[in-house]
Specification:
Blueprint lengths: L1 E6 L5 H11 L3 E4 L9 H11 L4 E7 L6 H14 L4 E6 L3 H5 L7 H15 L3 E4 L2 E4 L15 E5 L3 H10 L2 E4 L14 E6 L12 H17 L9 H11 L3 H8 L9 H4 L4 H7 L5 H13 L4 E5 L5 H17 L20
Parallel strand pairs: 1-2, 1-10, 2-3, 3-4, 4-7, 7-8, 8-9, 9-10
Antiparallel strand pairs: 5-6
Helix pairs in contact: 1-2, 1-13, 2-3, 3-5, 5-6, 7-11, 12-13
Length: about 350
């Protein structure tokens, strides 16, 4: 089982990616939300020049935020800086759509988007809006086509999994697929939010709220469609966000998304919300969670550290994960055992 990490990128994320490589993480990805995070390309460009073995990637590109040629050019540049170790995730758009007040893309459009990106990176031509498009890097640019990268699809339902299967891509998803294992046979990474508790540490301590609050905030944002369904905190958050002016509600809903809890989020972050909305736990509890993820069909876990002490989060989680992998009888996929629904997750 691969132990990977993903960041809501900040200006110090390149330092954290260097540390992740030193610690032994196999991949380090960043989210792509330019209205909230440090720039994706600048972050990974710096990290690429300071690392040599860890795989870098974006989770995920969408067609909402940039023209397809801009994303293709960025992928080509990053893959050149990190040859043989760049991953490109693509999705229908959840956060990026919400920030723009739009709905996500249709899966047929996502499939075409990946196919067109592959064509552009191979040096071919595509047609969009009646215009022929191509990447045209000359030798002086330092970028040579074709460029080969591994593609991943952010999928959370049957249409997304089917799209990934047709594309021959890996899947990035979460462990909330009902009473059945993840319905995908290829490479599958399950996201993991939360913090490793110190001995005797309370779930509602200041450190835990700061470190796990961003992941729990996502659960609040999901409301009745997420792991906090039926909880008074989820209902209270829903009422509070509904009171925000409609023209700005979509902005407040995702303020601080997966980076740090907003002032509104913090009003509803309790120990119970941390417990149900993230995979926070003791070392033994996190090892048990990792085993359930393996049994749900994960080939890899994609851990997102957050809070004021990212180095501590990276080191603590990897220590638990490595002990888990080294324990006899663990890490053997068994798709007939413990369903993913047993894992509370945002």
């Amino acid at each position: 089982m691969e132990i990977n990490c993903v960041f809501a990128p900040a200006t110090d994320t390149p330092d954290h990616i260097v540390l992740a490589e030193q610690l032994g993480y196999q991949r380090a990805w960043v989210y792509d939300v330019p209205v909230s995070y440090a720039d994706t390309g600048a972050t990974l460009g710096i990290a690429a020049t300071r690392t040599s073995t860890i795989r870098l990637g974006v989770s995920v590109f969408t067609e909402h935020l940039r023209h397809i040629t801009t994303n293709a050019g960025l992928i080509a540049h990053l893959a050149t800086l990190a040859p043989g170790r760049f991953d490109a995730g693509v999705g229908a758009g959840f956060t990026s759509s919400a920030y723009l007040g739009r709905k996500g893309s249709r899966w047929a459009d996502v499939e075409r988007y990946v196919e067109d990106l592959r064509t552009l990176l191979a040096g071919g031509e595509i047609e969009r809006d009646g215009t022929v498009l191509s990447l045209m890097h000359m030798p002086a640019s330092g970028i040579s086509l074709p460029v080969e990268v591994d593609f991943w699809v952010a999928a959370h339902g049957p249409k997304g999994f089917a799209t990934a299967g047709r594309l021959g891509a890996g899947v990035v998803t979460n462990p909330t697929h009902g009473d059945e294992p993840v319905p995908f046979d290829g490479q599958c990474q399950l996201t993991y939010y939360g913090t490793v508790l110190e001995d005797g540490e309370a779930l509602d301590s200041r450190r835990v709220i700061d470190a796990a609050g961003a992941g729990a905030g996502l659960a609040l944002h999901m409301g009745q469609y997420g792991p906090l369904a039926g909880m008074p905190e989820a209902e209270g958050y829903h009422e509070a966000i509904a009171a925000v002016d409609e023209r700005h509600r979509h902005l407040e809903l995702f303020r601080g998304h997966l980076m740090e809890p907003s002032d509104l989020d913090r009003q509803f972050l309790t120990g119970d919300v941390i417990r149900r909305g993230t995979l926070t736990g003791t070392r033994d509890e996190i090892a048990a969670s990792l085993q359930r993820l393996v049994e749900a069909g994960a080939n890899a876990v994609l851990y997102q550290p957050s809070g004021p002490d990212i180095p501590r989060e990276l080191a603590a989680f990897l220590e638990v994960a490595e002990q888990f992998r080294d324990t006899p009888g663990t890490s053997s996929p068994n798709t007939t055992a413990s369903p993913a629904s047993e894992v509370q997750h945002a």
